[in-house]
Every structure is written in structure tokens, then in C-alpha cells.
Amino acid sequence: MSGPEPTHGESLSAAIRELIEVVRTADLEAADAESLRSQTATVEAVTAAIRPHVVDGIRMQAALSFEGLDADSGARMIDVTDLTPEEFVADDRPQPDEIFPYSPVVGPLNPVSPPVRLWRAIGETGGELHGEAKLGDAYNGPPESVHGGVIAEVFDELLGCLCVSKGIGGFTGTLTVVYRSPTPLNTPIRLRAWHDRTEGRKVFAKGTMYDGDTLCAEAEGIFILSDQLSGGGTRPGSTKV
Question: How far apart are CA 127 and CA 233, in angstroms?
Fold first, then answer.
């Protein structure tokens, strides 16, 4: 079943992603110089046309400005640790791309995001986040493989979004990634994250990244609860920073 039609901003971001991918893989040194000058001018003209719409303010993944934040989205992420798995995946619960539309990993409105798809799911540990990452040539590291730093970035977002979705969002304290095998480019990679435990202000989350049956990488993140984050640091009995 097809999803909703993309917005104008989502369509533009998708077009820019495709442009980045083409530029990354094109032999620009062998291309006609005059043609490249013309195309560069076209890109510069598009940038100039969009620049007047730039919004000033603090940069956030959740909105362009604090005035644009949906007050309900924060409320729906608070004190949900006692939800059943069925309640966790209810249709009225926001998905990560809805919580963070400007994320560099999952955000449909950020042209540098792949974007990675994440969704609430019922897993072995109850309410989990599952997902799929298909990382193109722009994210290349070793030959035909995803850059290790990009893998760490995906894990940071995967584990962080899990915590936010469960109402225990916090700042990343540490992120430990173990690389088990190369993660191939342009291949659907299966993602899974779950809440392991909470100790005081520290929330421990774990995740895996698979290519079929092959474990590519696994990670553990420790997130520090904070009332500076929407939906974070609000667990009953938790100590806020």
C-alpha cells in the first residue's frame, strides 16, 4: 500500500539527494567544462531562489523554530515506559521521521539524510524500533561498503529515537559500535533497537544492523536523561539535569 504523497519540501529534498548521488559518482574531470559551468550556474540560481525562505533561529531536528514545535508531540512521548507493546505501536504514536523531520538520518526534509526508515514494532524485548537503511554511494567508505562513521551515525539515531519514542530521551553519553563485517552499499540493511535497562539518569539501549542473515555491526548507547529535551528525563522517580 502506498503512503501519502510527498510534500513539496520532501520532493525537493529527494531531488537533491539524487543530485548528490549523481555528482558523487560522475567523472566531472572528464565532463565538458562549459556544460559544467552552465549546470553550476543552474544550481546556484536554485540556491538563490530558495535562500529568502531560510528561517533564522536555533537549529533543531524536530522543527525549523520553537514556534513550529507541535506541543502534543512532546506530550505523547512522556511517561510511556509502562505501555504494553501493543500500546507502543498504536497508530496515534508518532514515528521517528514525524518526531525529527529535519534529522540528518531519518528526516524526509533533510536532503543529506538517506533517509533511514524507522518504525515502532513489537520485538523480542517488547516495544522496539525496527528499520531499514539503504545507503547509497554518497556514504561510501571501504570499497562497496558504507563508511564506518556513517554506520555510527545511524546507530546514534536508531538508539536515540528508541529512547525518545519510549519517553526516556536523553543526550548521547557514549556510543560503542562493534563492526562485525562490511556493510554493503545500495543494499537493504535491517535495523533493530531495544531498551536494555535504566540506571538512575543513564538509559542503556542496544541495536543491531544486518545484511540478510549477516551481522554487520552492533552497538550500545548510554543516554543521559535531561529535561532539556522534549519527552526526555520525565520518568517517574528519575533525576533530571
Answer: 19
Please tell me whether residues 104 and 18 are part of one structural domain: no
- Asked whether 184 and 210 are in contact (CB, 8 A), the reply is no
CA 131/CA 105 separation, integer angstroms: 12
Tell me the C-alpha distance between 127 and 205, whole Å.
12
CA-closest candidate to residue 60, choices 100, 16, 98: 100
The CATH number covering residue 192 comes to 3.10.129.10
Is pTM beyond 0.85 here?
yes
- In three-state secondary structure terms, 202 is strand
Q: Which domain holds residue 161?
A: 66-225
C-alpha cell recorded at residue 22: 549523481
pLDDT digits (tens, 9 = 90+) for 113-145: 999 999 999 999 999 999 999 999 999 999 999
Judgement on whether residues 200 and 93 belong to the same structural domain of the protein: yes
